[in-house]
Fold Ig-like domain-containing protein.
Amino acid sequence: MFIFMILGLLAGIQAQGTPVFVQTGTDLLLEVQEPVVLERLNVLTWRVNDSVNVVKLVYDIETVVSESYKSRAEFSAQNHSLLLKNVQKRDSGVYRASVSGDKEITVAEYSVTVLDPVSGVKLTVKLCSSDSTKVTVICSTEDSLISSTFTCDNQTCSHEGGERAEIITPGASLDVYLENGSVICNHSNQVSSTRDIQKIEDLCVKPIEISGVGFSIYRLKIYVVSIGLVIMMCAVISVHVVEKLKKKKLTTTSPPTILCGEFDH
Ligand SMILES: *[C@@H]1O[C@H](CO)[C@@H](O)[C@H](O)[C@H]1NC(C)=O
Ligand SMILES: *[C@@H]1O[C@H](CO)[C@@H](O)[C@H](O)[C@H]1NC(C)=O
Ligand SMILES: *[C@@H]1O[C@H](CO)[C@@H](O)[C@H](O)[C@H]1NC(C)=O
Ligand SMILES: *[C@@H]1O[C@H](CO)[C@@H](O)[C@H](O)[C@H]1NC(C)=O
Ligand SMILES: *[C@@H]1O[C@H](CO)[C@@H](O)[C@H](O)[C@H]1NC(C)=O
């Protein structure tokens, strides 16, 4: 039973055809892999997932590209290749070309996976020992991160260990390694890769600290000046209003402080 399952799995994998990875938005050319000999009324088809017809050629009568593929698929009558333009992720699937005459022969089979390019990657220093001989870096992407520790002895560094968080993007890999005195963080999948690179000797150089105290004093100054301005304006307006009211010999008593109350909000 178990063996049959394994055999079934293997057969399933084999039946998938040549793996092809292609980046979203690019064009994909699928060529026939076996020589094609067509006789009158033989039918050559390109199908996806054994269910969707892309193109159908009835030799030597007519070639029909399916309605949903008309604007984005090109079929070569000469060599029977199929060009899919601007592929999207939903175009992933098993593409099979077959010729049916007396019997059906498969002449091409591809397992196509359309992938987005990987996102950018960032290398940051998490820990630096006081003597700078041990450094832990974090290599992170939008949805995963990996940390890695290197022990350095003057110019030579070695990888000591690390841990990784689960990579959510399927098919992508995230790697951090040493090369030529630099730490390289590499995010890649079958169609693209991004990297961040930093020299080992630059990793433990602490950036010149912008004084936090200086910053808060600057802020405090702004606050003080603004509050002062508000109070001054309030005073001016109050005096002005009081004077006006006095001149008009007011009938109602509306205290000018309300104005300041409003101003404060
Ligand atoms: C088949 O035809 C297409 C379209 O004309 C062309 O791009 C491709 O290179 C051809 N393939 C071979 C093997 O000649
Ligand atoms: C083929 O099947 C796969 C998996 O079931 C699906 O994701 C894909 O969209 C299908 N492709 C087409 C063109 O229908
Ligand atoms: C590392 O460098 C220091 C000074 O530059 C030197 O004294 C020491 O011997 C070096 N250590 C090794 C293992 O090379
Ligand atoms: C290592 O760095 C040196 C100098 O920067 C450069 O000449 C050399 O090509 C680099 N080697 C590799 C394998 O990157
Ligand atoms: C990144 O890693 C992948 C897989 O490990 C590798 O194929 C690719 O060449 C690397 N890219 C760079 C720029 O080092």
